[in-house]
Design a protein that fits this description.
heterodimer; A: about 280 residues; MetI-like fold; about 0% strand; globular; B: mainly alpha; two-stranded antiparallel ribbon
Chain lengths: ~280, ~290
């Protein structure tokens, strides 16, 4: 049989993409598979991809061993708290950077850009000392504070605000809708796609935070999912893979389900994150 | 502008600047200041010693090993994940049906997983006896390796998992860039007889420059932030062969409680990061064509 050049190219395309997809998806499938096995089923010489008989007992056991429901609630509180304050700070700052002229604008904007380049990984030690001085260690608020301002979010939103025509603002001002009312009733609704994109990126990145919560927490009452998983691993010290993988699957599940349901929005958001840079 | 307006302007700026000041800029100066003090278990009160911490850092062979590890990590993960991302973005951007969203999701989903969870998963995959990595590499004729327990291969294992975790995000950024290239450029090129490699070289690549610059900067920052996977998978071992900068700072600050040394390393870290990014913008940034 003879293939035309075009259909041979198409075959190659799907062959490569299919193979790479298989390699990237397999690890996750392997977590799920291990988490549903009986302990003895793990020790097979040939990997068993389909767990049979299925054992959901592992998940129940994980919940008995560590308060993962508490970790989940803490994570939601921390992530939502960060996002709520971020939306306020970035909207206000993006508004003045995007729509107003004032003394020191370039300088202040430069500060916001620099903040993008200095991650928490570069400041966790002095921040720890600050929170210690104010007696805020081991609280949920401690996990949120360093992220309340976002140079990155401000930058994204400023770009969106700048694209809104000047004439619209002039008309609004004549109608008596200036300042904050213009921001709230005109700019924010028009910049909704950017706000959603930023929100999704913020939720994903803070849901996954590890270093900072690790440093400022030391009791289960305030710990988040990622820290809880880390602790669970140490407590189990790698002995029981079915339990470890059940815990891992539980920790990854909320964000992945969210992603699969809203795939289009997620993809658009992460695409937008680079385009404006 | 009226006075009240001006006041309003600065007050809108205030919340952001306030948090930024306290949690980003003051810390930068605070670590620079504290780096001049001996402040550890032997010196419970900070003791001003000029630059002695810096001398101590540069004299420690471990510091150079850590730097070397981190540079190896950066110089392998960045080019490999960027070229993989670009290649796959070009493939996914070809005409195809709804299977595109399947490919896209399968390549991008690792970004959604917490690094800690991903690290846990790969500890299991790299398990020398039961792990699937050794099993399938065996088919390709590789010997069974101890991976995370072997000084020679632990860093490679961490590099492999990090590429898996990060390339999907870079791919999406490239994909966004590709979708922004007007189709008539390619049509014009085709009429002129430019195909395949030539189209890539003279249209795709230059038009992707802003996306490439963005990915490059993000990749540099994240490759010097690497911590979570090291913390979970190896704790810097075996023999400090996977010890990287942030983990090294963490060790000094929270394991040895040497805050002066921790501050010194933090200061060097920030300086290094800013210089690296400045260089990227100086060398590459000016060659990037922006369509405004």
């Amino acid at each position: 049989m003879k293939f035309s050049r075009k259909s041979r190219d198409r075959l190659g395309l799907h062959l490569i993409l299919g193979l790479v997809s298989l390699v990237t998806v397999a690890p996750y499938f392997w977590i799920l598979s291990t988490s549903l096995k009986y302990r003895t089923e793990v020790f097979t010489q040939i990997p068993k991809w389909i767990p049979w008989p299925i054992n959901i007992q592992n998940y129940l056991e994980v919940f008995q061993m560590a308060p993962f429901h508490l970790y989940l609630i803490n994570t939601i509180i921390v992530v939502a708290g960060i996002l709520a304050i971020q939306l306020v700070t970035i909207t206000l700052a993006a508004y003045v950077f995007g729509r107003r002229n004032f003394w020191g604008r370039e300088f202040f904007f430069f500060l916001f850009l620099i903040q993008m380049m200095i991650p928490i990984h570069a400041t966790f030690l002095p921040n720890f000392l600050t929170l210690k001085r104010f007696d805020l260690l081991n609280t949920r608020i401690a996990m949120m504070l360093p992220f309340f301002a976002s140079g990155y979010g401000t930058f994204l939103l400023r770009q969106a605000f700048r694209q809104i025509p000047r004439a619209l603002e002039d008309a609004a001002v004549i109608d008596g809708c200036g300042g904050l009312r213009f921001l709230w009733h005109v700019l924010v609704p028009l910049a909704k796609p950017t706000l959603i994109a930023f929100s999704i990126i913020s939720i994903v990145s803070h849901w996954n935070d590890y270093l900072w919560p690790l440093i400022v927490t030391d009791t289960p009452e305030v710990r988040t999912l990622t820290i809880g998983l880390g602790m669970f691993v140490q407590q189990e010290s790698g002995a029981d893979w079915t339990l470890l993988m059940a815990a891992t699957a539980f920790v990854t599940a909320p964000m992945l389900i969210f992603f699969l349901v809203f795939q289009k929005k997620f993809v658009e958001s992460f695409m937008l994150s680079g385009m404006k840079g | 502008m009226r006075r009240t307006d001006r006041l309003a302007t600065y007050s809108y700026l205030f919340p952001g600047l306030f948090f930024m000041g306290i949690f980003t800029f003051i810390p930068v100066f605070m670590s620079a200041y504290l780096s001049l003090f001996k402040w550890n278990v032997n010196n419970p009160e900070p003791n001003f010693t000029w630059f002695s911490n810096y001398i101590e850092v540069f004299k420690a062979p471990l510091f150079w090993l850590v730097l070397r590890n981190n540079l190896i990590y950066a110089f392998t993960t960045i080019p490999i994940s960027m070229s993989l991302a670009l290649f796959l973005a070009i493939l996914i951007n070809q005409k195809m049906g709804s299977i595109r969203s399947f490919y896209r999701a399968s390549l991008f989903y690792p970004t959604m997983i917490p690094m800690v969870a991903a690290a846990m998963l790969w500890v299991w995959i790299f398990n020398p006896g039961l792990g699937i990595f050794n099993y399938y590499l065996g088919f390709l004729g590789f010997p069974r390796l101890e991976w995370l327990y072997d000084m020679r291969y632990a860093l490679i294992a961490i590099i492999i998992m990090s590429i898996w975790k990060n390339f999907g995000y870079y791919m999406l950024i490239f994909l966004a860039g590709l979708q922004g290239i007007p189709n008539h450029y390619y049509e014009a090129a085709a009429i002129e007889g430019a195909t395949g490699w030539k189209q890539f070289r003279y249209i795709t690549f230059p038009m992707l420059a802003p996306a490439t610059l963005f990915v490059f900067v993000v990749a540099i920052i994240s490759s010097f932030q690497v911590f979570d996977q090291v913390f979970v998978m190896t704790q810097g071992g075996p023999g400090d062969r996977t010890n990287v900068l942030v983990f090294y700072i963490y060790q000094h600050a929270f394991r040895f409680w040497d805050l002066g040394m921790g501050s010194t390393l933090t200061t060097l870290f920030i300086l290094g990061l800013l210089i690296a990014i400045w260089l990227v913008f100086r060398v590459i940034g000016r060659r990037v064509y922006y369509e405004v």
